[in-house]
Amino acid sequence: MRLDPRMLQFLFSLSGLCLFPMLGLADGATPPRPAPCTAPEYHQFDFWIGNWDVFDSTGKSLEGTNEVTRPFGECVLQEHWSGSGGGKGQSFNVYDAARKVWHQTWVDDHGGLLLLDGGLVGGKMVLSGEKPAHGKQPAHIDRITWEPLPGGDVRQLWETSSDQGKTWSVAFDGHYKRRA
Fold first, then answer.
1. Is the separation of the CB atoms in 166 and 150 below 8 Å?
2. pTM of the model
3. Does the CA dihedral 175-84-74-76 come out positive or negative?
4. Could you give the CA distance from residue 139 to residue 93 in angstroms, rounded to a whole number?
């Protein structure tokens, strides 16, 4: 006996209707997918989210303000920097699950670009990247460490090395205080 293709299609759709209620999928709805970026790794940098006044390492000189948000749900941290003496920059920070690292892309209004990778080291977020020589600037490594401090403050220490990490110089040492 040969079944008409339309009859086969009807029988398959009928069997689907019978199975959906058993699966909790009434009316042919697809099962809900887990929300993206909800694994714990995606929240390792959450301590940096907020509105900040950023001071020098002494805590006396205001260096700028920073707003760190999550504009794309749980997946991306976006930084909006405004320096006290001018200058603006932004970074996008994302956990790269395929490589199991955090990545930051920083750009600013002076043509600056940083590409950093890393992750949590001893409770601190440490990201680094190599920068090739350009103009008068020699090749070097940038390393930035964000450290959560008691009371909810954050320290950001940016260091550079032009000898492949044997010695480091401080480029910026900032103390983030939450804005009220």
1. no
2. 0.80
3. negative
4. 24
* Spatial distance between the Cα atoms of 16 and 10, rounded to a whole number of angstroms: 10
Whether 115 and 152 map to the same domain: the answer is: yes
Q: Give the distance from CA 101 to its chain's centroid.
A: 10
Distance CA 43, CA 73 (A): 12
Q: What span, in angstroms and rounded, lies between the C-alpha atoms of 139 and 136?
A: 10
Domain count for the chain: 2
Residues 114 and 134 both lie in one domain: yes
Q: Which residues does 168 contact at the CB level (< 8 Å), separation at least 6?
A: 143, 159, 160, 161
For residue 54, the domain's CATH number is 2.40.128.20
What residues form DSSP beta bridges with 144? 127, 158
The per-residue pLDDT for range 84-136, each reduced to its tens digit, is 999 999 999 999 999 999 999 999 999 999 999 999 999 999 999 999 988 88
Question: 25 and 46: one domain?
Answer: no
Range of the domain at 108: 40-178
Ramachandran category for residue 56: left, alpha or beta (phi over 0 → left; psi -120 to 50 → alpha): beta
Q: Please give the radius of gyration of the chain, using alpha carbons only, rounded to the nearest integer.
A: 25
Pairing status of strand 154-161 against strand 62-69: unpaired
| Residue 55: strand pairing partners | 62, 175
